[in-house]
């Protein structure tokens, strides 16, 4: 994995991390990688603790470190009350407000928007992929500010949020929303850094079991990422003290954190606004406008 910056400066050791989607393919591995770095984990997913191996994951992490470094909460992030509870629970478990929030939970749809998609699936996709991370970030920022601490938020976005593609219209729109939110939240730094990771397709059940993607020629196996590469990027994004507002795009083992997309768009809009203002002034001077 190639990173554009030097060694991470922010130490994850001892930090309280809320990780959503912790029982998924990327979430599970990220939990292990964070624990190896000495983080204390508040793991969250929609399954009950008895199913999908939540109990065994916590046991594995706790036995590996010799102390209690992982706890699990079942929460449905489509519900605002569960999101509030998640952050309160993490603070109760570890004695202070969470230091790091990783909005990793996400869902894709097997259906096609203009063919067989349903209103219910659309609502779920927008709720889990966009509304929940926004709300979790909002509550996290309040907790961190009230406690006078500092914090880091990582959104698990997607290349689909940078590169519009047929078949991923709504998933991509939600992930684009996260990338936009990341950029727009730059002003919270240095107290709170909000950054994002936008991977290309990752070798996970979300991709391999999705009938829509199996026949998609853009899913080039040679560019497919491994889960550990996504974890590398997430850990780097947390550790890089310059990551506020940045999205780390991942493709074929490369990471690009400096994207000029927003700078160019902002310049473009500023120039257009300036020209419109100038035109209005000229019209007024020559007596053609109000
Ligand atoms: N797999 C890929 O190719 C890929 C590519 C780019 C981005 N991503 C993103 O990475 C993240 C993780 O993906 P993954 O491949 O590990 O997927 P996954 O399906 O294995 O894991 C997602 C987890 O989110 C949880 N979740 C879903 N709805 C929830 C809800 N309402 N409340 C709480 N938890 C809920 C699921 O139970 C699951 O454990 C997602 O946000 C995904 O969009 C994945």
TrEMBL record:
It comes from the Eukaryota. SUPFAM superfamilies: NAD(P)-binding Rossmann-fold domains. Pfam families: adh_short. The chain crosses the membrane at residues 260-282. One of its GO terms (molecular function) is oxidoreductase activity, acting on the CH-OH group of donors, NAD or NADP as acceptor. Keywords: Membrane, Oxidoreductase, Transmembrane, Transmembrane helix. One of its GO terms (cellular component) is cytoplasm. Belongs to the short-chain dehydrogenases/reductases (SDR) family. This is Uncharacterized protein.
